[in-house]
Each structure stands twice: as C-alpha cells, then as structure tokens.
Amino acid sequence: MSRVILIAATTGYQVRMFSEAAERAGIELTLATDRCHVLEDPWGDRAIPIRFDDPAHAAELVGQVGHIDGIVAVGDRPAYVASVVAAKLGLKFHPPDAVAASRNKFLVRERFRKAGFLVPEFYLAAIADDPAGAPFYPCVLKPLGLSASRGVIRANDDGEFRAAFRRIRALLEHEEMNESILVERFIEGSEFALEGIVSDGRLEVIALFDKPDPLDGPYFEETIYVTPSREPAAVQKGIVETAARATKAVGLTDGPVHAEMRANDRGVWMLEVAARPIGGLCAKAIPGLEELILRRATGEHTAFAQLDAASGVMMIPIPGEGVYNSVTGLDAAQSVPGITEVIITAKQGHRIVPLPEGKSYLGFIFARADTPAEVEQALRSAHAKLGFEILAALPVL
Hints:
Elements: E1 3-8, H1 14-25, E2 28-33, E3 48-49, H2 55-63, E4 70-73, H3 76-89, H4 96-102, H5 105-114, E5 122-125, E6 139-143, E7 153-155, H6 158-174, E8 181-185, E9 190-199, E10 202-210, E11 224-227, H7 233-250, E12 255-264, E13 267-274, H8 289-297, E14 310-316, E15 322-328, H9 330-334, E16 339-344, E17 351-352, E18 363-369, H10 372-384, E19 387-391
Parallel strand pairs: 1-2, 1-4, 2-3
Antiparallel strand pairs: 5-8, 6-7, 6-8, 9-10, 9-12, 11-14, 12-13, 14-18, 15-17, 15-19, 16-18
Helix pairs in contact: 1-8, 2-3
C-alpha cells in the first residue's frame, strides 16, 4: 500500500474528503498538522504534530515515519511546508521558491511582469505609511499574504484609498502580520478560476470555472463557480494557454494548482497561481479531485474522469456582521431541481464577519445539471429560499 503525507490545518474542511478518497484508492494517508505536540493524539487520528512556522523541523518529523510515496497539501501555508518537506525527502512537489512566490501577491506580479504577461500598474506601500492616495484610479489594495479576497478593497479616489488603507492595516495588525500592501490598477473584465494539476512542469486542466457574478468591488466576495465555462472557445483557449505559461513563470512543477484570472478585450490577466487545490468544500464541485491528487502524488499517471454534467457551487455570502443563530428554508432549497447538497457550516452562537475582514462563509450549495445555465439558476433559486437569522453582536467592554 502506498503512503501519502497530507499536510493540512487541523480544522480544514478537506481533511475528511482526502481521508475518504485515500480509503477508496487503497492509499495509506498520514496527516501532519499544526497541533499541540504536548497532547497525545487529541483527535484520535494519529497525526504528526508539526508547526507551520518551522518547515525544516516539520521535514525532520515527517521523515521519521518511514517510507513515503508522496506528499499533498491543503492550504497556502501547508503547501509551503510540503514543498520544504518534499525537497528534503526527495519527493515530487512544487519547489519551495516557487511556492513562496505564489503566496506573495507582489512576488507573483513581478514574475508575471518579467515573463511578459499583461500586468496592471502596481507598487508596494508599507503599512507604517499613511499615504494620501494612489497615482492612478480605480485601484485595488491587497494584503500580500491573505487569501480568499480577505482585505482586498477597491478605491476610486483619495478618500476611498485612505479609508481602505487604514482598514487593511487594522486587519493586518489584528492578524499580527507585519507586511506591505500591494496597490494595483483595477482590471476590468470577467473573472475565472482554473483547477489543474502539474506533472513535470506540464499543466493539465481539470476544470475551468466561470464566475458569473460581477466582481467589481468595493469588496471581492466570490459566490458562484460554474463549470464548464460558457465563454467562446477562443477565450477559453487563451485562458488555458496563459495559465500554463503562468505556472511555468512562477516555477510550479508537480502537484495541484488553483489559478485565477480576468479576461477582457486586451486578453487574459493572471491574478494568481496557487500551489494548492481549490479551497474548502468547493472541491465537492469536482467529484474525484482528491483521489486524482493522491494517485498523482504516488506517481500514478491516472487520467481525470471528466465531468459528465455541468457542475457548480455557491459560497453562501455573509450579509452582515453578527452572531449566527439559525437558518430556514433548507428543505425547500434542497428540493430545487439540480441541487445536490446544501451544507451550512456556520455554527449557532458563533460570531460571523463578512468580507473584507471575514474569512468564512455561511455554507455551500452544490448543483449539477445538463447545462451551466441550469446550474447557475439552481444555485440562485436555492439560495433565495434560505433565510438566515443573524443576531446583533453585543459590544465588548
């Protein structure tokens, strides 16, 4: 039986999905996660306790488990740890330098620029500064290391710029992150996400998702992903070819990638190429993804079974800050034709925060149908049937 190391956060949604996929594939999966090393197996999963901020020591600990056939990671920080572990143990994975660049919005912009991609004007601003404005508008301000659109804010003038800058600075201080803010000119156009896997530097596309909701700001909360894309063949070809070039430009060589881009009449503009699979429960929109990643990690040249229907997911947005109490309309939402599952991940009594400060959703809605249009309609119809009770949070004195 092949053995694969999975590096993931303790509370990651996808850990269970990978565990189930490993069981189906007959692969022994060993979890390495950022948990307390003093408590003896508190979750009962025999995971290796590592620290994400010490990847070199994580490599030593993982190396003690014996023979390993492959390594997989879920999340940006775990992906970097996996790259260091793989480099030390001689396993196939993306190189550490490439993974580090993919996690930093400025470094990846630099690599795209040097490789000749379409790149907006951009520059770095230190959070210690208090700039009066930007040299161009509209612009978008982005923390370098946060994902899922956290802290990403559009500004159209000096007043909005100053407000956005201070808001992001407060978020970074709360997260104890001392880093700069990327400022770049806003890119017009439609946005897409591409899920793929790289083998020896060659990108294989698994799914290309349309994002039918306009993402024009001031915040950039993603909601709906639908595949296959409804764009003309020429646009899809341009997206795939640009993503493949971007993967090489960043230096990613072996493992899953999640790429995001915009397209307009000038061409394809890469936003990111992350060295990890699509995040959270969204992976359920691509049945078989986890098993494919695991098998490829062991060296199998397994082909991906392409989806036999259109598929999609809605990340249920948080309408406002407060304390989540309850949801109504679940049965009605699940009865909408095409809906395969509705999962509410918010917990009763927990405080919820929308973007740009928030980092979670109320839940996920999944759909499958004959056409992408039917999938999108099913997702919107199901969401319209849900009602969320969010109570006002009491002030902390």
